[in-house]
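Input for the complex:
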Amino acid sequence: MTARTDAPATEDTRTRLLATALRLFSVHGVEGTSLQMIADALGVTKAAVYYHFRTKDEITEAVAEPLVRRLVAITEEAAAQRRRGAQIEYLLTGFVDLVVDNRVLAAVFSSDPGVARAIEKSLNHAGDFKKDLIRVIAGPEPDTATLVTANVTLAGIALTGGSPELASVDDDTLREHLLATARRMLGRPRSRP
Amino acid sequence: MTARTDAPATEDTRTRLLATALRLFSVHGVEGTSLQMIADALGVTKAAVYYHFRTKDEITEAVAEPLVRRLVAITEEAAAQRRRGAQIEYLLTGFVDLVVDNRVLAAVFSSDPGVARAIEKSLNHAGDFKKDLIRVIAGPEPDTATLVTANVTLAGIALTGGSPELASVDDDTLREHLLATARRMLGRPRSRP
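Predicted:
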């Protein structure tokens, strides 16, 4: 193997490694997945995994990064809408799409505080992205009732996206029902097609 | 030390160990907590921890067991109510109480699939307690819309109970708003005091 072919091969291993980690996370949870398991599933040595990532936290961050970046972008774009109604609608639609596009992953990452911390640490620019998300839904200076409803809505959507009870429901149907539930919870009128 | 005092001391260590593990889980997540960290926080050796629990899974199970047992009991008691309305009301009230009584813990345990699996494995008699829970809320043969709403409601309540954004809200206020949100989501009338 020449030096020239090394770079693409390495990039390919990294991509395969992340896809494998994601698959194992979704089956065993982040906690139940070891670097050794990732190496075994890839058919490489643990040393080969270490070449790309020194810790499981680094893998977790790399797997979650695109998801968090898209979430931050959706929140910023939603906040940039003029009317409050449009802000909420933009965020709900974007959030539900994101969850449905990453059904199992969303459930894994929406909750474990260790994982959430690891992600926030790695994405300093993203800052307090969960707080920003809630702020768009709940508005400025929300009362406790509004804050609770916003939290229940977003957390419920994120976890339900990965619920095993709904694994047989197709993406479009799940998207439609999640959006309808969220709108009902937040007292939003139905969108007109 | 005589043999007579050994048993209570051992029992006491086990109780302190579980309380310490719970505290560390809530700060670092289950994933971020090692047996060594638990030993250090207790001021004992790792061997002393091994005397009580061979793996972190066993500790996780022991910490979660009372919570899951109560959840199973609430579900059974709710299912035993005569009217559908009473079943839902009983389950919602019991579930919200349980979450509020275990705010951070509920969030930690409601989501990580590895933790959930470990608990279900240890509590064979509890069977598929999440499915039973959903069944009481959604009723027999629910359509997809009802199933999604039930999932979003229960998952949202469980995670919101431990939300850092709501840490400053006192238990009674949180309980009241969670219950109001759940009733609104499920189209339940307000309970009359």
